[in-house]
Structures
1.
Amino acid sequence: MKNAEKLISKIKKEDIRQNSFLLLKIKNFIFWLLFLFSILVGSISFSIILFFITEEEFSIYNNIISSGLELFLLLLPIFWLFLFLVIFIVSIFVIKKTKYGYRKSFLFFSFSFLFSLILGFVLSKTDIGKEIEHIFSEKIPVYKGFDRKKDMFWSRPKKGFLSGIVVSVKPLIINDEKNNHWEIDIKNKHFPKKIKIGHKVKISGKKLNDNTFIADKIMPWHKDKKFFKKFFERN
Amino acid sequence: MKSDKITDEELVKKSLEDLNYFAHLYDRYEKKLMSYIFRISNFSISESEDILQESFIKAWKNLNDFDGKLKFSSWIYRIVHNTTISMWNKSQSKGKNKEKKIDTEIFENLASKINIEEELDLKINSKIINKILSSMDEKYSIVLILKYLEGKDYKEISDILQKPSGTIATLINRAKKDFIQKYNDSKIILKK
């Protein structure tokens, strides 16, 4: 008996059937879907990174912090940057699992990366980054530990950085993280009109005593994103 | 059934309707694939026949997944390659002899294609090439076998090993350098 005949005989005898065409297609489709999902998550991470970067008042830090590395380590959203990179690596593994994924070149992955950045940039203009960051801050306890650098940075009155919730506007009094009340000496400095009771603010200046702080600049905790507001107003 | 003039892809389509056509595909590739199994492993004839049969059963199960985007030969080589490597690694863990079988004709073919024929010492025999290939990293020896002994081009090797063409080109270059280095080292040892 020829080997080919043995093979056919075995297939017939054991009734070996072919895998479903649909199942094979679905399997491939799922990997493509996972790839697109990872690109979307990567974009959201990038939009949050942009949210952190664009809302910082870098001119203030430049006058106080001499080392760029110190500023980088203090303010960079490490968690989101880490997530963005991990998600990108995951997307490469996922695409490699698709039927012809092994043929995908460096160019394909470069375009995916670029697309993720562009989509992240667009999302950052819609305040999605800010909203997601808020949800993480409020709902996920572990996250608070990851991204509290900004809070820590602005809770150093001796160094000239103070933050807290506004409890009174005239005179300006804020309640800091440790529940200490601070009276803010505004003098002739500009006071943003939008700031109201209950808002969180960050203030740069000088500590006068244990509950008085001389303000140099008063800023809302989060910057307003005006891109879409302006866009809709125009149209 | 006359199947000599039918392409592999047509045979695959016909196999989906009539199992007997699948036997023609087996006949068409049996010798080539048995030879490939020998080249990348140290299995006996009966073991190799079992591996080939198992590979064709896998191919039968996934025949619906085969499309014209790659050659049938690349697809079946891939299945045979993966099955052989998997079985080979299992047998290695059981302590089977690692040295692969390779005959004089194969050695001369490989050596001349890598352009070291002018350096060939007549004393060198298939045992040395056997040792060189066995001592090489598997990823290097396999690309050399596919390129120079199986006559596959970069795209086919890329489809068989499921690696990008650029990676295959790099692997072949490194494998050639490694082969020549090891060949030169073996000459020095012989002269001593």
2.
Amino acid sequence: MSITAGPGSQLERPPSGGLSEIVGMILDKGLVIDAFVRVSLVGIEVLTIEAKVVVASIDTYLRYAEAMARLNVVQVIAPAPVPAETVSGVAESVAQGVAKGALDAVQHGIEGTAQHLGSVPIAGSITDEAGLPQRPESREALR
Amino acid sequence: MTESTIQRSAGGDATARGVDGWYLYGVVPSSASIPAGHGAVGSTDGQVTVITKDGVAAVVSRLSLNRALGSRRDLLTHARVLDGLAATIPVLPARFGVVLPDPDTVVTQLLEPRRDIFVAAFEQLAGRAQFTVSARHVTETVLLEALTREPEIRRLRESVAAGGGRDVQFRLGELVAHALRRTQESDAAELCNTLIPHAAAWVVRPVTEEGEVATVAFMVELTHRASFEQAAEDLATRWAGRAKVRMLGPLAPYDFSDALLSAPQ
């Protein structure tokens, strides 16, 4: 039921979030006050999304190995030109047996790595007038 | 945690106070008008309305306490009412499941004690809304990238194909997992770096699923909405075939509400 923004658009723009996306937001975030009456909630324990830690386990490794072994790389085409400064050392071995589309993507990925790796911002504000604290640190004010 | 919070009651329960309550969606400036047509939590024909006091208003609907909350429809309705408001006015979302016994309690326990916090938050929210952007890798493409980039992965892959043992498979899988992790990290950074220039603030959510690149909530000035959306569009085009980019919004500022509500008074 994904709806994209317009003809030819690659961006998914659903009119509203799916249940799992919504649950992640509205059960975990927002104003809470003490003056409740007693209400029953059904199914919340089922619906609440536990943050699943992506654990690199033996199973995961074997699954990746299998996926990699299954990968279809039979389309052997002429190697695409590769800028030496971004992928030097990789370019030579890359030239065998991989489609150009993937190569382009790899160049893209490697540039990204060189520029950004280790600099993932966590949260913040880039405009002073925004005035929002850098991270949501406390909801105690409303408890 | 939700349940214990919900069930903590202030002076009596539903039996003592009757069978009706007031379901709270969030708080808005009292000048706001509430669009109809989203239904109401806990009933199909309920009317969403406001209870106003000194410039701030609680968005509420009447609720029968005989029925338990938490159906799919209840959750979606809560979000749709709030997101419908967020497109045009500042709204502070309440967590799902907050119910107050009567309009008087809404005023004395919610609106009056926190009026200054709400007013300050509305000032920060004016003309802004949350957009949430997430991306997921196309597995085959990022595997191919890893294979292309790393000679050791290619070598081990050939060993596995030639009948290599469990230890070779394990080593291959480990290298692939690390390679995918690096791709995820650099792509998450690229997503942030692409969109942050068009946003006033942002919060990165923890990655919880395999294949997930990132999920980031952005606070966007509505006057910059077009450029923000275009940047997301460009990213989706750039990543076509290797990652799917998804955007929700305008949304109520769920991810920023803690920060907004704990701002210095």
